[in-house]
Amino acid sequence: MKILFATVPDGTLKFQKDRIPLIPRKKAEKMFSWQGKDNEHPTFPIGVMRVLASIQDNGYDGDIYDLNNLRHSDEKIIENLKKIKPDIVGLSGPLSHCYPNLKHLAKIIRDLFPNAWIIVGGHISGSSHIILKKTETDIVVVGDGEICFLKLLDYIKSNNDRKKLNFEILNKIAGLAFLDHDEKLNVTGYGEQIKGTEMEYPSYDKWEHGLKEFGGSENLIHEVFEDATDLRSIFGLNLEKQHRTEDILKIHEIVKDKKVGRIQTSKGCVAKCTFCQRATKGYRVFGHSHMEARIIELKEKYNVGVLLVDDENFGSDRAQGRECAKLMKKHGIYWSSQGARAASITTEDLKFYKEHNLLAIRYGIESGSQTVLDIMEKKTTTQQVYEQLEACTRLGIATTSEAFMLGYPGESRKTALETAEYNGRLRFLLGNDWNTHYPAWATSIPGTPLYEYSQQIGVIGTDLDEEEDYLYRTADTMEDRGILNYLNKTEYDLKEVHYWIYLYRYAGKKAYVNEIIKKHKTLRRTLSQIYHHCIKEAFKGYIADYKRRIKKEFGLIKNIKTLFHITAKYITATSVPFLPKFILFPMLKVMSDISYKTLEKNFKTKNGIQRYNFFVDRRSEKGIKKGYDFSKRNIYDSTRVIERSLRTIVKNDALETKIPATNEEKSIELLSRQQ
Question: Less crowded by CB within 10 Å, the N or C end of the chain?
Answer without folding.
Answer: N
